[in-house]
Each structure stands twice: as structure tokens, then as C-alpha cells.
Amino acid sequence: MSDTTPKNLANFIWQVADLLRGDYKRADYGKVILPFTVLRRLECVLEPTRDAVREKAKDLSGSSMDPTRFLTKAAGDRRFYNITAHTLTSVANAPDEAAKNLLSYVRGFSPNAQEAFEKFRFTEQVMNLAEAKLLHLVVSRFADFDLHPNRVSNHEMGYVFEELIRKFAEDSNETAGEHFTPREVIKLMAGLLIAPDLADIQVPGMSRTVYDPACGTGGMLTAAEEFILSHNSAGQVYSFGQELNPESWAICRSDLMIKNQDPDNIKLGNSFTSDQLPQKKFDYMLSNPPFGVEWKKAQAEIVEEANDLGMRGRFGAGLPRINDGSLLFLQHMLSKMRPVSEGGSRLAIVFNGSPLFTGAAESGESKIRQWILENDWLEAIVALPDQLFYNTGISTYFWILTNRKAPAHQGKVVLLDAREYWAKMRKSLGDKRKLIPDDKIEKIQRLYADALAVADDPEHELHGKVKVFCNEDFGYHRITVERPLKLRFEVTDEALVELEAALKSGKSTSQYDGRDNLLAALRGLVGEDPSYKKAAFASTLRDALASLGKVPPAVDKAVWSAVSVRDAEGEPQLKKGASEPDPELRDNENVPLDEDIDTYVEREVLPHVPDAWVDHDKTKIGYEIPFTRHFYVYTPPRPLAEIDAELKELEAEIQQLLGEVAS
What we know:
The protein is of the alpha+beta class. The strands form five sheets. It has a ten-stranded mixed beta sheet, with helices on both faces. Strands 13, 19, 20 and 21 form a four-stranded antiparallel beta sheet that branches.
């Protein structure tokens, strides 16, 4: 293992798959390789204290005291230990006893480490390997991997795990992006989230808590911790998270053990239906929840909480459409902000474009955006380059929120366009074709710091990449513009066909026994000039139908429906003395919140349709953040003369080439 860069080390470890080929499906390689990698890493970390722990365990044998405190101290104050004399090497040296010794070795770990192996279903994998006569070979191979901390740092080990999971996901046709986020994206996110607090985190004795409700293998927690400790090595960072995928949870938990943090801070389960940190509040939160994943499985519990608890719960502001739970994650995180009196919180989350604008006025999504903006929690949205993630090439955004904005920034939102800050990867990884190198990360972070510094100037634009808006700029009144229903009245052959069909199909008209007589009476009006006055035509109808007696109301309604024709020159219809609106001409307009509706209509609507009016009873309030529109730059088409000249030049080149071929 001469080259221990994370990618090459991961590739080297993945070569164990060559041993599994034939006996295992490709989709199952990771079920062996991931837990063995964790086991070897834990073994390497514990190696310096192995003998001391074993001796202490012997001293405590037979004692009624809980040995945990003594054994963790013997392990160098680590939060995990192993009391056996086994190692992967010793297991490999006794091939006939490999399965028994290996399982005994794993059972010798502290309970918190054993729990991780249970989620890997390690016993099942050991027995499968033994049955295939592969266990000795696999154990021997892993025993040779040098994963000691002085050789492979925790940071590098995180990359190794991510690369292994990516390979596992590719082989099993899973979505790699559901398990982890590219490290350079996490690094940028952590920097933007925490950098505004540099002065605070550099205070001696500082401690901070970090949380991710969809923590995967823990990459975001690690990045936040590293950023904070890089500015205050004497500080304390406590990581918390929850994860749905058992394998990712086991790796994240193991990672915390290796870094000597409490692995019990990482919970297994659905953050929506089983929040296992319900009373906890955190200083920093960051997450990359799955994009566009429906929440139908959790619908009953979420709707029940929203209805029963309202704003006292997590989802009182509104519920998004069932096919995308992204904004549920954000609401969940916002519920875990510390009160401002206790220092407040900052959080960052990765979204696709949908949460910016999906949902009409007063929809669940719009209400959530309104709630966030009216509480002045949204600090900034940062647009990222596309093709950054392993499982999607779509555009993505950081939302950065806080309940303790700087005074100059209160009531303001920064939009930062970082879509051009990227470099092309030498080799694509799934849908990931771009990365954000360190120099670009630094530029974006400087741009963000400058943006916050000028946030008191709503009109300020920074290098064309930053725009600052007031919260209200994203709100609008959704008004309903009505126009009068105008009709002319006439009996035509087509109208009679329509009427006959309506009378036959209608529940209240199909039993009408005077249908034929009615149609015959009306047929006498075919060919007469249309009437533009309803009252006059009503008189004509009465005369024509006088011999039929009183016509049932449903039949009368069907007659009027058939003989009424929309006509711009027709008579405006009245209903209870007021103009009756025409549903087919109904339109909607979005009017900025800070603009008077009547003024807007007079300027934008009435010059085009003078007879229009607004039905104020239907007016709704909506919020959306049209990021792309604010940074759109119009590119005029090339002049026709220029295009024509280029075509003629190309035509001349083609003729020249053809001439050379002919000669």
C-alpha cells in the first residue's frame, strides 16, 4: 500500500471483491467489504492500548462493578475497547477456527461498537464467507491493510468510506448520493455556515454542538467539526445526527468512536416519524436530505403532528406536496434552533430548485416560505454549479438560515450566484462531472463575507454575483382578474344537437317526456337572427314554448346553456345585479406585496382589458424566490447579416474541399 491517497486506498481495499466474485453477487460485495473495513480501522486505532485493556479486563473479572469506565480509561480514554486477545492476524493464523475466533473477537468489543456490527449483519456475513470457504482469505487480506491513524487520518478515512460506499452503490444500482455528499461541497457549506462566527468560536473554552438529521456516514458533521477546530484547536465540538440507512449509520457511529466522541449521539431511524433527539437544540445544523423523495410512508404521523400540535410542533407552518419532503427536513431543523437568549443557531441545507418556487399562493410550500421569511430566518441562498453530485446533474442551492442575524442584515436576504465557480473533473463519477477546487471555495467564501458586509444596502450588487433583497420582495398578492360574461342568443342546428344530448344524459332531464316536442318547437327558431339582449330572447322563447306549459327548471337551464354563445360583442350578463364573470376569461396576476393592487391593475391590466376587475375575495398571499430570474442576463441573437456571411464562408469552404476531392 505505497500510495495511501483515499481514492487509491479505497480502490486497493475494493480489490477484495476479486475474492468474492462467483460466490457473491456484485450487489453484495459492499456487505462484506464495509464492515471489515470498519473492523480493521477500529483494530488499528486500539492497537496501542490492546494489552492494557485486556489486563484491566482480567483484573475486573468477577467484579460486580460496571467495567465500562475502567476499560475506556485503559483504552486511552476512548469510548470503545476490545477485551479479547484476538486480532485479524491471529484469526487468519488459525484458519480452521476462523469463524469462531472472528465472532468471539467482535463480541469482545464494547457494546456501542457491537451494535454497529449488528446493523452490518456481520455474523451473517461471516457464516456466508465460511460456507463459501472464503473467510480465511478475506480476513488475511484485511489484516494486511495499514489503517493506523498515523498512516490514515480520520479525515482521509472518511473519504475512504465514501469511495467504498460509492462503489457499493454503483454495483447494487443504488443511489450513491443518498449516502453521502462530495467533500468539497461539504467543505464549502461548513465554511459559509460557520465563518460569520469566527470571532465567537475562537474564544478560549468554546464548545459547540452540530447536528444533521440525515447524517449518512457523517461527512457533514466531520467537516463542521474540522472547520471549528481549525480555528480553535482547544475547543470542543459535539456531533449529533440521525440516519435511516443502517450501514451508513454504522459507519457514522464508528467514525465518532474513532474520534473519541459519544457514538450514542448518532441515532438510527426516520427523523420525521421517530425524532430521537426531541428536546435537543443545536448551535449549528447542516444537511443534504434526499432530493424529491416522497414522504407518503410517513404521511400519517406527519399529518397527525401538524394537526394536533400546529405551531407547537415541527410542521405547523404547512406541508409540502407528497412527492417532495425537502421542506419537511428544513422545518424539522428549524424546530431545533436554540432560542436567541441562549445564543441562537445557524443552519444550512442543500436543496434542488423546487423549494424555491414550487407551490402556488397559500399552498404548503408557499406557506412554509412565508413563515421563514416573516420570521426573518433566511440569511442567504447560494446557487451552486450543476453536475456536482453523484446521483444528479441538476442545479442545487444552499439555504443558510439563522435566528440571530446581524443588525445590518435583519430583514434582508442575500442571493449569491456561484454557478461559475467550478473545475472539470478528469474523470466523471456517476453524474458528477464538476468539482469546486479549494481556490474557488475561498473565492465563494470571500464573496459571501463581502455580501454580508454590504447587506444593509438592498440595491447593492457585488461583482454581478450578489444581490440583496428585502424579505417582502419575495412575497406577492395572487389576484384574480375577472372579465364580464358576454353572450348572444340564437337557436342553431348545432345548439339543438347539444341540447338533445344534454337532455338525454342529465339525471334530472333524462325522464322529461316532452323532449321531442321541446326540440320541435325550438327548431322553428333556427335561422332567425341572433339576439344580443337576453330579455328580448326570453320573450321569443316563451312564445315558442307556450304550448308546452311550464318547463322543469333543469330543462330550462339546459335550453339556455345550449342557446347562449360567448361573443365579445354580446350583452354583459348580470347576477344579483352585478356583472357575472366569465370563467373562460379569468386570469391571475402576481402583484408585489409592497405595491397597491388597484394601482397595479390600473397600470398593467386595464389598458389591455378595460372591462376587467379584481375579485378581492379570491386574493391570496404567496411567497417564492425566483433565483434564476434575478440573475438572468439577456443575450441578443446574432445579426442576420453576420449569420448569412458565416454560412456563405462555410459554403465556400465546402466547395473548395469538394473540388480538391474531384481533382
